[in-house]
Amino acid sequence: MAQINEHFLQLPGAYLFSTIAAKVRDYRSRHPEAEVISLGIGDVTQPLVPAVVEALHAAADEMAGSATFRGYGPEQGYAFLREAIVQHDFEARGIPMSADEICINDGAKSDTGNFQELFGADARIAVTDPVYPVYVDSNAMGGRTGELLADGHWSKVVYLTGDAAGGFQPRLPEEPVDLIYLCYPNNPTGTVLTRAALQTWVDYARSHDAVILYDAAYEAYIQDAGIPRSIYEIPGAREVAAEFHSFSKTAGFTGLRCGYTVVPKELTAQTRDGRRVALHPLWVRRQSTKFNGASYLSQRAAAAVYTPEGRRQVEGNIAYYMRNAQKISDTLRQMGLEFFGGRNAPYLWVRTPQGMGSWQFFEAMLEATAVVCTPGVGFGPAGEGYVRLTAFGTHEQTDEALRRMVGWMTKK
Amino acid sequence: MAQINEHFLQLPGAYLFSTIAAKVRDYRSRHPEAEVISLGIGDVTQPLVPAVVEALHAAADEMAGSATFRGYGPEQGYAFLREAIVQHDFEARGIPMSADEICINDGAKSDTGNFQELFGADARIAVTDPVYPVYVDSNAMGGRTGELLADGHWSKVVYLTGDAAGGFQPRLPEEPVDLIYLCYPNNPTGTVLTRAALQTWVDYARSHDAVILYDAAYEAYIQDAGIPRSIYEIPGAREVAAEFHSFSKTAGFTGLRCGYTVVPKELTAQTRDGRRVALHPLWVRRQSTKFNGASYLSQRAAAAVYTPEGRRQVEGNIAYYMRNAQKISDTLRQMGLEFFGGRNAPYLWVRTPQGMGSWQFFEAMLEATAVVCTPGVGFGPAGEGYVRLTAFGTHEQTDEALRRMVGWMTKK
After folding, report:
1. Which of A216, A394, B14, B343 is most deeply buried (CB count within 10 A of its CB)?
2. What is the pTM assigned to this prediction?
3. Which domains are seen in chain A, by residue range?
């Protein structure tokens, strides 16, 4: 008799962004004339840059010719892409890295979701609160999170809860943990970790034999030179951290699907009888069994991001979005609202005025201005009383949304 | 202290095709002048058809324009593709299907590997022997297969062992099983199930409350009208079967990555306390948490396979490969070798002469002819004494390989 994995049944049914979409549909049906602007979802709006588009056309032509057609690719991804990554994302920043340690994937979501499979069912996980839901939900499916409590926390998860007083910086856990998920620049708060702060996490992981899953999907948005763009800038990180990268936010690949995971050869975990086992061969075994590589076109497109033109063009897109972040920051300040992020990240984490709840503010702003934000409580209980705004809109939409928000807040 | 998932440690280290590649490399280093021809690996050689290439260029251009750029796609895939699939792969064959039941993926390997996550850790799995290794290895990682025995079987897996006398048809299990993996047309044996044979499996699953995971990746190669191309041609299958499709072998997408999984709304499994739970929402929850969709370009390319030109062109490619299958069949017959498949499948499953072992034959043929096959024992103990040949080569390579094989066998 086929029995289901009952861990699935405990998951909250509706995904945050589905609930938001339903509320927006309802609003539109009541206000068909309204021009709705979303500063909510983390999807990019600028088209692919010319260097990437050119690479896609060239790869499509290759696939059309007998002599140049490509079938199954190498298990860890094409060497031309892994070598470009090593050269530009690591060696150029003084970080030693081997192309063997790079595993190409179809986006950071897949790998941050799947990497937990390498660990035992009893692994104790630690996440920030608020947090990107994938880290928790994938472990819930794997049976590691215990019961879902009334406050939205899971009984077996250790929450590194942040708050305004502490600048939404994560606190070191007070109880033993095995896997620590860190995402910096952070989604949803837009905060970053300084080199010193990240060093304390690496030191913690080393002394407690924990593994850090470091999600660097937003590293391209870092403006300040002192902020680490990779955990491997920190001495000792290679033994305790895997790192997840994506071209989604760096180069607008949300529809194209390509990213990469770094699994250093020194990264190990333990067997029950105390032997150390390297995670790299385990991850390669996992991927070669349950994944068949990213599209050749996407891999060629990703390689184009590292060409001189590609880099310049992609930097132009990031500057485009960061101009939005600057404008949103200026406007929030002008409105007297407390917020985090927006300087080294495309996200702004805004405290709602007058102690309004996240959903209450979401609905009030939608009704009054037709502008959509993301309720902070959707990222965890510590997000209550906050909303997330994103810098991924067009300039025109962002300016118009801010104009409406100022009008509304002034009237309030 | 981070502990690994020890189930990974039991897996045989080297994947079959990696071992073959190493042996071929060794041969090449000893015979640098030899022109090696592979009839081994199941990768296609013909370029993408013009309709697909055109769709890739058009989609790349869309991604280059502000008004037509596409970011994150719908969670289950684009409606234009899901609707084309329903129309051509199901409704045109008289099979009712809703586009909601189609989940677009990046290839059948991912989903046949991941679908086991929906089931309890105690689920008893049944596979054919020989078998595509992904079904077993993914369950081994999930802890369902017990110990790896000396004969290559796993202690907790039920093997539906085939043999020449039974035409490599799978036998109904004699002990209770929960998940049954069936792949037809079969990889590696090239055999098919008649409608009556498939009906016995659907009936078995219904009466034993088992779920069938039906891998239809090679259905486009079926030539005989009486052979079912989908398990949903069989009455009662919607309640007991999920089905996996791929554009890899249908349309040469091994480098492009796109496929789809069918999860009918009626398909359920049980909770420990006896409630029935639909698998469709569980699978969508799994995918929306750990997957972010196939590339927009790949989805547009897949939709082009269903246009009138696309269908005609893709059928041309399949006919191209099946001409190889026919030639290989004719030659094997002429050489007096016993074999299966090659009529409704791109694979031929050949009994080695004079009781040679699979690897022994592989090495002897490589040394004598520089032609590569796949040792049958790599697909399971029941594959010992067989090798797999594929029809995916070019005509020129295939003819030359056959010429060499005939010369070698005549001398022997």
Report:
1. A216
2. 0.97
3. 14-43+309-411 (3.90.1150.10), 52-306 (3.40.640.10)
